[in-house]
Design goal:
The chain is built from no helices and 18 strands. By secondary structure, it is mostly beta strands.
Length: 184
């Protein structure tokens, strides 16, 4: 960063101002401002926030927004949009295929185990398209749940295309299955 302020004492903090860059263990953050609170082991960032995360499986996620936070111990975090804008993101598979793209009002995560797109989620790409008030992906269960706003899911990949609209849509990876509930 251009400026680095260290506050000592019981509530030790490090504040970074201007052209902030952080890169460690597959995670990259850039922003206009950031604060690391040592006691809570938590980060806060604001202003042109850009995140990049490469998973152990080689999938690369990139997102941009206005405000972000992350707790190092719980691995929970968030990315919020700027007024009048959306959080924008991409998911690049390791096989070099075209990325999936998306937008939402807010992205929250619990490590790599759970990601929630809220305040209006949209995703489009070569594999699927979706729109819902909320999209929740749970990695361990291989489950995607779409809620609110009469979610729509369109599977593009494979031998045939499927599209549906319902009150709730749940898609699982194993077994490969899509369930729709309420006014399908």
């Amino acid at each position: 960063s251009k400026e680095w302020v260290i506050r000592r004492g019981a509530s030790k903090e490090e504040e970074f101002v201007g052209d902030v860059r952080y890169d460690s263990a597959g995670t990259r953050l850039t922003s206009d401002w950031a604060l690391f609170a040592h006691a809570a082991r938590s980060w806060r960032a604001r202003g042109s926030v850009r995140l990049r995360r490469q998973t152990a499986a080689g999938v690369v996620f990139e997102a941009s927004g206005e405000k972000a936070g992350h707790d190092e111990d719980s691995k929970r975090g968030f990315l919020d949009h700027a007024p009048g804008a959306r959080v924008l993101f991409t998911r690049q598979p390791p096989d070099g295929l075209e990325p999936d793209r998306g937008e939402s009002g807010r992205v929250t995560w619990n490590g790599e185990n759970k990601v929630t797109l809220s305040a209006g989620a949209k995703v489009w790409g070569p594999r699927l398209e979706l729109a819902a008030d909320e999209a929740l992906y749970e990695k361990a269960e291989g489950r995607l749940t779409l809620n609110g706003g009469r979610p729509v899911l369109r599977k593009v990949e494979g031998e045939w295309t499927t599209a549906l609209k319902a009150d709730e849509v749940v898609a699982t990876e194993s077994p490969r299955r899509v369930e729709a509930r309420g006014k399908v």
